[in-house]
Write a structure and sequence with these properties.
The complex is a heterotrimer of chains A (335), B (328) and C (331). By secondary structure, chain B is of the alpha/beta class. Helices cover 43% and strands 10% of the residues of chain B. In chain B, the strands form 2 sheets. Chain B has a 5-stranded parallel beta sheet, sandwiched between helices. Chain B has a two-stranded antiparallel sheet with strand order 4-5. The chains are: A alpha+beta (335), B alpha/beta (328), C alpha/beta (331).
Amino acid sequence: MPHDVIMPALGMAQDSGLIVSWLKNAGDAVSVDDPLFEVETDKATMEVAAGHDGFVAALLAEAGQEVPVGEIVAVISAEKPDAPVSRAANSPPPAQTAPPEPAQIPAPKASAPPARHNTLAPQPGGRILASPKTRRLAIEQGLDLSRLVAAGHPQPFHVCDLDELRKLPDATTLTSAPTQYRRITATIPTSGFTDFLAFSRTENNGPDPTPSHLMAAFATSALREANDPKQPIQIRIETLFGPNPQLVDTDRFNATIQPENTQVVPHLILRDLTSSTITSLSLGPSKAPVLSVVANGEAYEITLVFTDAQLPDTLAIALITGFADRLSDPLRQLL
Amino acid sequence: MPAKPKTNSEDYLRMYTQMARIRTFEDNANQLYLSAKMPGLTHMYSGQEAVAVGICEALKTTDKITSTHRGHGHCVAKGANFKQMFCELLGKEEGYCRGKGGSMHIADQANGNLGANAIVGGSMGIATGSALSAKRLGRDDVTVCFFGDGATAQGLMYEVMNMAALWKLPVIYACENNGYSEYTRTDEIAAGSITARAEAFGIEAFKVDGQNVLAVNDLAQKLVARCRKGEGPFFIELETYRYHGHHVGDINREYYRSKAEESEWKTNRDPITSFGTWLAEQGIATDAELKAIQEDIKADATAAVEYALSAKYPDVIEVDMHVYASAS
Amino acid sequence: MREITLSKAVNEAIAEEMRRDETVFVIGEDVAEAGTPFKILSGLVEEFGTDRIIDTPIAEPGFMGIAVGAAMTGSRPIVDLMFGDFLFLVMDQLCNQAAKAHYMSGGKLNVPLVLRTNMGATRRSAAQHSQSLHALVAHIPGLKVAMPSSAYEAKGLLKTAIRDNNPVVIFEDKLMYQDKAPVPEEEYLIPFGVANIKREGTDITLIATSSMVQVAEKAAEMLAAEGISAEVIDPRTIVPLDEETLLKSVRKTSRAIVIDEGHQSYGVTAEIASRLTEKAFYHLDAPVVRMGAMDVPIPFSPALEDITVPTPEGVAEMARKLCSGTMIHAA
């Protein structure tokens, strides 16, 4: 029964050994403790014993060859071999540290970005998922990420999604493009209102009513009559020299005033310029419909400017007519 | 310590003075704690003065010691001054460690004190390494490693004694056996004989009455001389007693130590009193002179405490200084 | 330039420093005639003698403590800790004593020692001989931690460590001892706290330590063929850490993966990733991902051990996902 002699592991960090020399020839007799070959490891040369009694039947590596640990380098047979073999080791398998075969590589796609894998639908509560860099760049460049959401882009957003955002129509909402607006004008004599103001001063013991506040109440009441009675109505009063308060439900006793720096867009802006020398107005739209009143001789000229997104035409007509009625005959309004 | 020998009288008076200094220091430190003026905890050495003094008086300034959490005595005995010590205990900038070490880590590198250690047995490796440096670099320094009976339970002790013996290092392991390992009696925590532990490594081991400063000093001088000749290491077991509890807050301690026992040691085996008696008997100093020495020391300590109490704390910018040493 | 093994590089560093400074000595188990079981120190005892290459009994806490004391008193010991796993044995002397002595003494005591040990799995040495524990010591103020990734770094960092006046722990990857790299014949030192950009790129930053540098470089090769340009950075020392180089890279690429052979949780990857997220937050277009060894004791069986550590394929796959905006975790 022949015995294999292998290249032994002789050190903690040793993967292979260099055969320095064979101390026996093929066909020689050996005993178990006879040194069979010399191996050079990292630092020293060591002798390796035959390990078995018998004859060297085959030497399977040559002196000077590096053989991996565990490979068979010789065979010892019990009987003297007829044809002892002596040859070089098979070419050793690739060393442990050789890099693996590189995977089949398609030609580099230089500028095509990797396919997108965003998967998320809009989040409940409206939160937008985006990387910190995306958010920062969006702010810096005045881009509105919610438009990407509205356009159906899956989240989370990354920087390259801003390119998509830029391609959307009306890419920015921060600078509004000019939109179509409408204007309706009404004219009424001033006497109804001025008489009423004089009457109030003499009749009331309380403080004089502010003309613009009264106008605001008329406008609110007119809007309410034409629309939804329950809805709180916010109106912003703008006069020549200010203040410009924003009030809620001025037509009611429980009117409230909004904080000065409120961001809430009112339902209506009332621009009372009756104390100025302006006699005619033709201005563009604002964030909310604007009801302006100027005095021109013995008449008030009332102008309502609005966009179709802000007020439907019918409501606008009802508003200005209702306001004009009340302003021309306040007493009837109060009764 | 001067190199040339002085007359014995001077040596004896110096020993007395040093022991009295330790006692006074500890009394003051204890007071600072009890009056809530000292942050943290400290561990009183009172009662063990003869051990530190007897040994340190046999050493030069360049000889090294390592100390324990009960380290004020070693620190004073190796040449430290009151002012910087009290400053360190109070965490003040002028302390030996700029207030960063405190009582348990107090070190006086200029006097060869490599530091107290809060880890029981933690300095044994350091002491042995110090001896290795001395031997390797051709200096005749001796290192004394102070530790308590409780530290004999630490594995590190055996590891380093083994190596010290193998390499014949100039280190003296001085075991201050005060009968208690924290709140437990020594015979309940140390099996067998303490000196036999050293002898197992072939280290010559000695037992001595730790309350007798002359006996301690005599033995220390012999062993230090032998160490300098390369005959080390050595092991000494000194039988002694700590008057206070394990730490300053350990006041109700009758459950592990009887008042009678404490009283016995204080009355009959006090190292300072008995040495004073001996000095008087030998005609080296009168009672009045000894009293005067005590008074001087007390005054010195009082002044040092006052100084330390009003000394400044380190600036907050120092909090992250000294984490790393700079290039030399 | 000549190429030498990491083992030889370490040997040269120690020999050169010992010739230069007679207070330097080596202490540890089997360091003299045996030259350590990894045969790194062979030849040193012949040149320097057993007084300076000191064999110890198997007493890690003991000889670590002795090294601390020797360092405090004028010597500059190099402690050889045979396996990084034995770090647990020396922690008191290293972290309670060596790391703190300079601070606790108000700057008066110095501990100029080097602790040389190793790290790295896949050697079939099982759980108690395969750990990479550098995160433990990086956490302790007062220690410095170096991680050479090749023979070149090993020599330069070790020389710097020996000359440093602080306790330095240097981790060599035990599987790299026979790996060769170009190492100059002339003397050179690598400063601490300076990262090395091994490969420049624009799409993603791969920060890797020790042998993971080679893993990252292989991943970068694979990614390059797919049109993804990865930048590979080797911090070289984790304490001190060259944050600025890492941050600058992430600001450029917007994406990062940190690769290290410590365990995934509570490790070096977490610290570096956290710093990048904190300090480069507004430049990130992808989460900073950690890739460490699995949170398991390292198994013996080769079939299991090899999947516990990061691989080039794994790194490349993660990089692909991050570059394509794929979510790694649920929202």
